[in-house]
Amino acid sequence: MSKSEGAEAKKVKWFEQNPNESEVPPAATRHLLETYSGIPSDKVFEHVVKLRDEAWEIFPYPCIGQFRFLEPSFIQLPSEYDEIVQRLREGQKLLDMACCFGQTIRELVAGGAPAENIFGCDLQPGFIDMGYKLFKDQDRLQSKFLIADIFDSNSELAKLKEAFNFVYAGSFFHLWGREGQKKASKAVASLLKPEKGSMILGRQIGAVEAAEQTSATGTMYRHNVESLKQLWKEIGDELGATFSVEAKLQELHDIHSKFHSEDTRRIWFVIRRE
Ligand SMILES: C[S@@+](CC[C@H](N)C(=O)[O-])C[C@H]1O[C@@H](n2cnc3c(N)ncnc32)[C@H](O)[C@@H]1O
């Protein structure tokens, strides 16, 4: 992006022009940046705004403009977090799909999970580089990062078929309409070990009434609990597997609520292979 294109791009409503230090970053991520990354408390805000502005030049996603890449990954999934850290310590493996800056990986490592059992994957190499800058850990983080498109069946990621016990997918499946989500979900499911206890978990934008929505940022299917269960029933039937789905809708009380309609929610999900 040129300088003038960049300035023009920042005029969209999903580029937060005046972030509020009391909201950015969220408390759990601030704690991570202070303790895991060692950033002094009075420098955290400045640090994340600088990184957000650099990331925006690579790809002006709403999640970048609105600082959503700083959202904690397990705040509504505390028991799954404990279970995953424990199982990673026993040698199991997790993929952070569409890791972007990779906050999920750092949350797990800060909690005692061995970094070498955690993989990150994203389409944009620039985000991964910025994750190192955000968390100041390039010289110590042992996790492996892959650059791949989930739809590319010849990628380095696709070679890791059935390799993972867990896939975390945060703000990922909602990048598409229902058909795109189904295709991406099936590709993610193929990366899971085909055994009981394998798990796909995460969060994304949902809604009280499930529906496909087209806006300036593209087409998005916003699930509720029932529609997500129905999708995974279809996926299971097509793959010859059974998945159980636990999901819940969370109201948006934070800074992002102003960008969404009344019935928009965040949907948190844990999908287990039976
Ligand atoms: C909204 S961000 C999610 C960030 C992070 N997972 C989180 O929970 O905050 C979406 C990410 O998906 C990645 N992405 C988009 N399309 C993709 C694809 N086809 N394959 C792999 N990653 C993709 C983008 O590069 C971006 O980093």
From TrEMBL:
Residues 95-194 form the Methyltransferase domain. Keywords: S-adenosyl-L-methionine, Transferase. It comes from the Eukaryota. One of its GO terms (molecular function) is transferase activity. Pathway: Secondary metabolite biosynthesis. Pfam families: Methyltransf_25. Belongs to the class I-like SAM-binding methyltransferase superfamily. This is Methyltransferase domain-containing protein. It comes from Neocucurbitaria cava.
